[in-house]
C-alpha cells in the first residue's frame, strides 16, 4: 500500500509538471494551495524523537538513500540522506510529519516530508512527499492537504 501511495504522488507530480494542472501558476501560487486544511501542531519532545528515530531507521534500511522519480522529468533519482529537521508536527488527521533533507546527484537539497503513523505505541513511515527541490516548492496541488488530513 505504501508503494502505491508513493507511486501515486510521483505520478501526480509528473502529471502536474507536464501541464496536467488546470492552470499554470508560479511557485508562490503553488505554495498557497498546498497548505494543510487546518493548522498542524508541534508534538512533545518524546514523540518527536520517536518519529525522527523511525524516519532515520527507514532511511538506514535503504543504505542512507532514497530512490524517487524526479517530479519534473520522471527520471529515477538516488538521493543521499543528509539530516532530519528538528520540528515534528502532528497533522489534523492524527499522523506525524517530519521533514528530511537529502542531497541529489546535482548537489541540490531535496526536502522530503515523511508521514509517520502510530498504532499501539509502534511507529511506522506510511508516506513520503517531495516538498522542495533546491528550495523551490514542488508539492502537487492538494497533496499536502490530503496527506495531512488522512487518518
Give an overview in words.
There is one protein chain. This protein has 151 residues and is α+β, with helices and mostly antiparallel strands. The protein has four helices and seven strands. It has helices at 2-20, 27-33, 45-61, 143-149, and strands at residues 41-42, 65-69, 76-90, 96-103, 109-119, 122-133, 136-137. A hairpin with a 6-residue loop joins strand 2 and strand 3.
Descriptive terms for the model:
151 residues, alpha+beta, seven-stranded antiparallel sheet, 4 helices, 7 strands, 33% helix, disordered N terminus
Query: What is the H/E order?
Result: HHEHEEEEEEH
Overall strand count? 7
Give the overall shape, derived from the CA principal axes: globular
Low-confidence stretches: 1-37
Q: Summarize the main sheet.
A: 7 strands, antiparallel
Describe the secondary-structure layout.
Blueprint: H1 2-20, H2 27-33, E1 41-42, H3 45-61, E2 65-69, E3 76-90, E4 96-103, E5 109-119, E6 122-133, E7 136-137, H4 143-149
Short description:
The chain has 151 residues and is of the alpha+beta class.
Amino acid at each position: 500500500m505504501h508503494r502505491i501511495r508513493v507511486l501515486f504522488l510521483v505520478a501526480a507530480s509528473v502529471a502536474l509538471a507536464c501541464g496536467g494542472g488546470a492552470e499554470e501558476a508560479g511557485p508562490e501560487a503553488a505554495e498557497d494551495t498546498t497548505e494543510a486544511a487546518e493548522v498542524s501542531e508541534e508534538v512533545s519532545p518524546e514523540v518527536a524523537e520517536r518519529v525522527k528515530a523511525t524516519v532515520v531507521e527507514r532511511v538506514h534500511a535503504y543504505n542512507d538513500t532514497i530512490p524517487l522519480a524526479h517530479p519534473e522529468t520522471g527520471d529515477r533519482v538516488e538521493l543521499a540522506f543528509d539530516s532530519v529537521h528538528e520540528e515534528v508536527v502532528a497533522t489534523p488527521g492524527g499522523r506525524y510529519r517530519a521533514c528530511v533533507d537529502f542531497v541529489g546527484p546535482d548537489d541540490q537539497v531535496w526536502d522530503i516530508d515523511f508521514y509517520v503513523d502510530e498504532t499501539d505505541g509502534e511507529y511506522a513511515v506510511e508516506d513520503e512527499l517531495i516538498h522542495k527541490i533546491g528550495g523551490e516548492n514542488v508539492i502537487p496541488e492538494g497533496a499536502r492537504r490530503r496527506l495531512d488530513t488522512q487518518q
